[in-house]
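Can't attach files on this board, so I'm pasting raw text. These are the components:
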Amino acid sequence: MKNHEVAKILAEIGEYLDMQNVPFKPRAYEKVAGVVDGLEEDIAVTYERGGIKALGEIPGVGVSIAEKIEEYLETGRIKYYEELKKKTPVDLSTLTQVEGLGPKKIKKLYEELRIKNLDDLEKAAKAGKIRKLESFGVTSEENILKGIEFLRKSGGRFILGFAMPTVKEIEDRLGRLKEVKRVVVAGSVRRRKETIGDVDVLVVSSKPAPVMDYFTSMPEVINVYAKGDTKSAIKIKNGLDVDLRVVPVESFGAALNYFTGSKDHNVALRRIAMDKGYKLNEYGLFRGKKQVAGKSEEEVYETLGLDYVEPELREMTGEIIAAGKHKLPKLIGYNDLKGDLQTQSSWTDGANSIEELAQAALKAGLEYIAITDHTKRLAMTGGLDEKGLLKQMAEIDKINKKLKSRKVKITLLKGTECDILKDGSLDIDDKTLSQLDVVGVSVHSYFNLPKEEQTKRIVRAMKNPHVDILFHPTGRVLNKRPAYEVDMDEIIETAVSTGTVLEVDALPDRLDLKDEYVRRCVEKGVKIAIDSDAHSVTHFAYLEYGISQARRGWATREDVINAWPLEKMLKMLK
DNA sequence: GCCGTTTTCGGCCCGACTGTTTTCAGTCG
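---
Top answer:
Structure tokens for the assembled complex are below.
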């Protein structure tokens, strides 16, 4: 996969141009770098498939950048980039990660002190050389040293579901201050991105000073980047950066909108505002000096002639056009799930008994869950064979009866998370599968098969007449391992032709399917299931993150089979 | 350097904070 290396070079070209004060081009390169990095297809494959024309179809890629990408793919280098690099031969992508250092300062550091990389920078700072440079000073030097230390220690993004308890705690504490009228977490947290880089907290208060004092002196604060009347920024112990903005009540909606992003969504809104003769900023929507909207987000969208856009959709993937045409979907709600179709019990690697899972699910507001323990191929989990499954089915019948007699309103379904073997055959015979309510299948081995073989393997499994759901379809684990190579278009086509459901596994580090695949399923009419993949009673809480991912994929309640009543859901299954 | 059912040329989001400046450039989001 060449996308990341191509993106990195494009981003560096942008920074080099920034160094030279070239107007506008830096933004073009910066933007296209982000696009290329996020491409799902390997850009080398795109090029093989359609040549330079296909490259030009990537948003943000025009003639000039397409040529440069082609040059890189053909020769492994880009002359233009190398010339820029020759002039200022520094490790740009690392140095720009140092908080407070941008292209201009890096240029100066190179020209005056020959600083090329992080080590040079650290040495110079420690030797007190940086403070002597014009427009630098003692504070800058100290900040650089701090920045280097943080960069070496942390770096990387945080998984939303794992960072959320910390975020909620800060939110709650700020909310309890008497000077705080309202507190909301905006940014990528509110958009429910699967990973977050930092946290943007918005507060309404007429007395910001004590709020800022409290915020910057919380016990977990390890650095204060900035502290002012309207904005402060800190880093906390676990490495997370948190920004706090204080806004007046009449600007709350505009500020919430602005700080929720995404950046591209905001830019588009501002353009629409300008076209209509308004000005939109974080303080409100203005005509001349008069504020015409901004108290609430709804008001802002409405005044611009748009329907309200849910935060999860604000990624500039067509939501603004849809909002203008009143064609946004009514997303599945956070309380809409009635069931959970993947849970593991103590029969294999789950921590709790079937009955404990049932009770916990009931508490989580569910009406039915499928018990889907592993199968024998996963020996280390004590995976069940046909005999074990039959035994478990009998046990589930017994527990269902017991629950019913006690008027406990939850139904247990008999299921399996059956292993897909290397050749696409299944780990359990058809006869046994045919007796289950819910047959889920998944890949737990041979992650490194060539794309074609992996795709063929999974397609074969999906074509089994008993298979209902493909669990965690791409096998990725965030911050740990990438998805295996698989042709998702073919998987989705197979789901269409076989009526197989694709899962959104809600474990915070899986979230598999991811949003863009959910969206493709929704477009193709493929149904999805949002499952906790619970291995303990506490894991039902993760369903929330699966719902977020589905919402980010534009899914409605109709698209999600476990948002349906039990009878209707069962009819959907094979 | 990209983009466009207002444009194939002329636009390109904009405000806060910091540090080192005596009025602003650089960085960030």
